[in-house]
Specification:
The complex is a heterodimer of chains A (125) and B (374).
Chain A lengths: L5 E4 L13 E2 L10 E5 L8 E7 L7 E8 L4 E2 L5 E5 L3 E7 L5 E10 L4 E10 L1
Antiparallel strand pairs in A: 1-10, 2-3, 3-4, 4-8, 5-6, 5-9, 7-8, 9-10
Chain B lengths: L2 E2 L3 H6 L5 E2 L3 H8 L20 H11 L12 H4 L44 H10 L8 H9 L4 H8 L7 H16 L8 H10 L3 H4 L4 H11 L18 E2 L16 H9 L19 H5 L10 E2 L21 H9 L21 H12 L6
Antiparallel strand pairs in B: 1-2, 3-4
Helix pairs in contact in B: 3-8, 5-8, 6-8, 11-15, 14-15
The chains are: A mainly beta (125), B mainly alpha (374).
Chain lengths: 125, 374
């Protein structure tokens, strides 16, 4: 099995709010509710899944997920599938990082009145 | 940190110092290229995958011109076992000169995409297309059914798949391809000097690892580092099995171009033989997510599938159009890559490396150790 080193570079540490687990996503919106991502085990160039949990009272109606390699100027070759779960949570399947290097995860969380953009970075070696 | 291991015998014999040049980070990267060989897993989309009878029938059909409409060609005509199941011709010669280099057929089990343009998402479909391509074997499904039914293979075929007369021609075509696929899955390259080196590093056996030549180690360091080769040539098969622009011209002549992945996706989406189709034997269609979710972009134009580098020294000439005669030419191509040729808005991975002659030789030495006979 391909081994990898995963380093999540995020704006904050482990989640404590809304009893979520995982790593907190960054947002430039200072009023953005906390949101957390948990990545399943994954290998380079193999599909994997991740889970997103959004905290707070506002209901997250929809999630859009994607990832890009800013240094290489390309994204993923596959469109991930998002499945809404209970409790402001979502499952994202069909993620695939086909190259080593820094990938930026990008999420649009759509609430009733606004869309909040979140990111995090993964250095896949 | 650089590993240096001086065996006890050195003190007595004066033999060359066994040395591992790689840093700890480079060692960790190197471990990702193994272990080898991979564990065998049957293909759920092919109910005769791993079946010894199907493998034997597939091998016999692979070598028999019965699979061409007029007996002029067999699979083996282009995929020569003496040439690592490839060909020494720059471009394949079917009934006419074809557009691309003949790819090797080794290490094909379990890939996500097949062919230079990725027009197939499974091995039996990739085996099927040449049989009915007018420029290659030129059968129709009807003529193939007749050929199989009246051949010495009819009994074996019916043992595996039931009566031929009960099958419509397309079913016979798919079943024939599935026997070929069962055979091709068994073609796996041998372990190599690189695998011995990699496994020794994993076991922290630096004495054994130090037997890997210094030139090959320097080449590996370039491969992992400044060369950026491992961006695309990753994993135990030395391929991410995705599609990239390697800066090779894609003009076929003055007016035609090889569309690469762009054309491959067009063929994929019009094919009845994908893992999302009815010929997939897996009721769960586990492998269908790539064809369902693959993303199309204009940057697909002129990109080609990353070939495996296992056994690469045995498969000259190189690149999708066979224009580079040897590994030295390939390394020099990347060293002096024509940046003007690359998509302006494509991925930003390649850059001129300006390698020295020694660096080129080191990379070639490293690549040669990916074969069983370096």
């Amino acid at each position: 099995m391909i081994r990898y080193i995963l380093c999540l570079m995020l704006s904050a540490g482990m989640a404590v709010a809304c009893e979520s687990t995982g790593l907190r996503l960054a947002s430039e919106n200072k009023d953005a509710p906390d949101a957390y991502v948990v990545l399943d085990d994954f290998s380079l160039a193999q599909p994997f899944s991740l889970h997103i949990a959004v905290c707070g009272e506002n209901i997250a109606r929809e999630l859009r997920a994607d990832a890009v390699m800013p240094a290489h100027k390309h994204g993923m070759n596959y469109i991930p599938e998002v499945t809404p779960l209970d409790g402001n949570r979502f499952k994202v399947d069909g993620m695939l990082f086909h190259m080593p290097g820094v990938w930026e995860l990008r999420f649009d969380v759509i609430f009733n009145a606004e869309t909040v953009f979140y990111t995090s970075s993964i250095d896949m070696k | 940190m650089k590993w240096v291991w001086a065996p006890l015998a050195f003190a007595f014999s004066g033999a060359a110092l066994a040395e591992v040049l790689l840093s700890e980070d480079e060692i960790q990267q190197t471990l990702m290229f193994g272990p080898w060989p991979p564990a065998l897993e049957s293909d759920p989309s092919n109910r005769v995958s791993g079946n010894p009878q199907a493998i034997a029938l597939g091998e016999a059909l692979f070598n028999d011109p019965l699979l061409s409409v007029d007996g002029a060609l067999a699979c083996v005509s282009c995929h020569d076992p003496e040439q690592a199941f490839a060909s020494s011709n720059p471009r394949a010669i079917g009934r006419v000169l074809l557009d691309r280099n003949t790819p090797s057929l080794r290490n094909l089990a379990g890939l996500r995409w097949y062919g230079w343009g990725g027009k197939s998402d499974n091995l039996w479909a990739a085996s099927l297309h040449p049989i009915v391509d007018e420029k290659e074997m030129a059968h129709s499904s009807v003529s193939l059914k007749s050929a199989i039914a009246y051949s010495a293979y009819a009994t074996d075929f019916e043992t595996l798949f039931g009566g031929i007369s009960d099958q419509d021609p397309e079913q016979v075509l798919v079943n024939t391809a599935k026997t070929l696929s069962a055979y091709l899955e068994t073609l796996i390259t041998n372990r190599t000097p690189f695998d011995d080196f990699r496994d020794a590093l994993e076991q922290r056996d630096m004495e054994t690892a130090g037997r890997y030549s210094v030139s090959a180690q320097r080449g590996l360091q370039l491969f992992l580092g400044r060369g950026n080769c491992a961006f695309c040539h990753s994993g135990p098969k030395f391929s991410n099995n995705e599609f990239h622009d390697a800066g090779v011209p894609y003009f076929l002549n003055g007016s035609e171009v090889d569309e690469g992945r762009y054309g491959g996706l067009n063929l994929l989406f019009s094919s009845a033989f994908t893992l999302d189709g009815n010929w997939n034997d897996d009721p769960e269609k586990q492998g269908a997510w790539p064809v369902r979710n693959v993303r199309r972009t204009h940057a697909d134009f002129g990109t080609f599938r990353t070939p495996s580098l296992r056994g690469v020294a045995e498969t000259a000439p190189y690149m999708h159009n066979g224009t580079l005669a040897d590994l030295g030419a390939v390394v020099r191509h990347y060293s002096q890559i024509d940046m003007e040729r690359l998509h302006a808005d494509g991925e930003a991975i390649l850059t001129e490396l300006n390698l020295t002659d020694r660096e080129i030789a080191d990379l070639v030495t490293f690549l040669s150790t990916l074969s069983g006979r370096p």
